[in-house]
Amino acid sequence: MIYYQLEVKDFLKQYKNCKLTLEEMTRIREFASTYIDPYQGISSKKPNDIPLQKIVYNVNVKPKDIYALSSSFVRGNAISNRLKEVFNDYNLPGHTEFEGIKYYYKNKNLRNDFNYLFIYESVYDKIDLSRSTFYSYNYSDNIEVRKSGIKSEKIIDRNLKFKTKEEVKSYDTKLEKLYNQKLWFQSLVIACEIEYDIVTLYNLANRYWMISERLLDKMQKLKLTGFDFIEFPVNIKFRSDAG
After folding, report:
1. Residue 167: which domain range?
2. H or E stretch including 34?
3. pLDDT confidence of 125, banded at 50, 70, 90?
4. Is 124 helix (H, G, I), strand (E, B) or coil?
5. 135 inside domain
6. Any idea what DSSP says for residue 206?
7. I need a surface site. Which of 55, 92, 160, 217 has the fewest CB within 10 A?
8. Which among 100, 119, 138 is the end of a domain?
9. What is the mean pLDDT of residues 87-114?
């Protein structure tokens, strides 16, 4: 199945009159250091609590269906009830939800109809490298790449293969430093029986979710807002015999 990179366009910004105590800010930092920072590229623990109760955000225009939050909550996004209902009909990796994110709409109407979706399962640690391939591309004009995707003329090498995740990371770092190039997924095989509609890689894919073509089609048909998709298509297969 083909997957695309979902880019959330806007951040929820904290309401100017929302003053957090030192204890509350400490809880937020502890959340990041416990569930996000130690798990770069791999699945994290499932949080039992998410410290969003005291935070109030602000939205000055018509609320969208998905927002990013601060780096302390980088593994998740704020989603509307409408988008939550859509996700309920698709296969998501291990996740947890926190309902009732509070925000002021145009500085006056307090609402609580956003949900925080935290995806703690990363499939990056389940990639079968023996059956997966990568390609490198020229990103000298990275703004253009992010707007229109990776065009064939920008691709340098195809069908690159690696034996270890460390080798992937090292090669990507070398490309960026020496040749102004980046590494991207061409075809991935995931050791998993469930065909997820949101794939969280949390490594080369940065903070972004990769979403299936069928889920993207549904979101577009419903005219959901707050996101773009980037033409970094990846062919992903889920196989129980991968390893």
Report:
1. 124-239
2. helix 22-35
3. confident
4. helix
5. yes
6. T
7. 217
8. 119
9. 93
